[in-house]
Design a protein that fits this description.
The protein starts with a strand and ends with a helix. It is about 50% helix and about 10% strand. It is built from nine helices and six strands; from the N terminus they run βαααβαββαααββαα.
């Protein structure tokens, strides 16, 4: 749902401007059948640096990131919200940037197509009217917390990815993609969604690849 400057960009695609019904039915059906943890594990598996990692480890990290994101308290965002077009060309639904001032860019063309896809696929029970925008803002608020505050270290502790041990001491490493999964889980929780926004963004990305 996001790409964030000054941190690793999330790998979330968005469709080109064509009818949402053109999405490949077999891909959409697979996404609908998979549970959110499976999709989060797939997301990590497709993230650079995780090539060849054991899927059980990736699943454990995905679960830890989901649990962390679900428990992150909602805090008022300092970011300025900017509505603009151009998300379809960039492959973005929303983007948090920290400089020169914290801002969240919401791409209205991608938001509109996401709402259309939800209607056409009958996903309103998962994503109520207007919830995509609310989820995007909640998602980016977590990126803001992870960029500026102590939650970033707390997420590392939750993941427990040890990259170096020196006697009794250990150094925890970054798990690429974990912040994105945490942000999706947070958005699902605080917005009361039936499915993670990760499923929706995966459907939009699939549509973009097919068209």
């Amino acid at each position: 749902m996001t790409a964030t400057r000054h941190t690793a960009p999330a790998q979330t695609g968005a469709p080109r401007p064509r009818a949402a019904s053109a999405a490949a039915p077999e891909v959409i059906a697979r996404l609908e059948a998979a549970d959110d943890l499976d999709l989060a594990t797939d997301f990590l598996a497709a993230t650079p640096t995780h090539e060849g990692r054991d899927r059980a480890l990736l699943r454990a990290w995905a679960r830890a990131a989901e649990d962390f994101g679900s428990a992150v308290p909602s805090t008022p965002s300092r970011a300025r919200v900017i509505d603009r077009d151009g998300g379809l060309e960039l492959g973005l639904l929303a983007r948090y940037t920290s400089r020169p001032t914290p801002s969240v860019e919401l791409y209205t063309d991608t938001l509109a197509l996401a709402e259309e896809l939800i209607e056409r696929r009958g996903w309103r029970h998962w994503y109520p009217e207007g919830s995509v925008r609310a989820a995007a803002l909640a998602h980016e608020a977590v990126h803001e917390q992870l960029h500026h505050g102590p939650p970033k270290a707390a997420l590392k502790r939750s993941l427990g990815h040890v990259v170096l041990r020196i006697g009794r001491h250990r150094v925890l490493g970054h798990v690429a993609g974990a912040e994105e999964i945490a942000a999706h889980a947070h958005a699902r929780t605080v917005c009361g969604l039936g499915r993670s926004p990760l499923m929706l963004t995966a459907a939009l990305a699939s549509y973009g690849r097919e068209n």
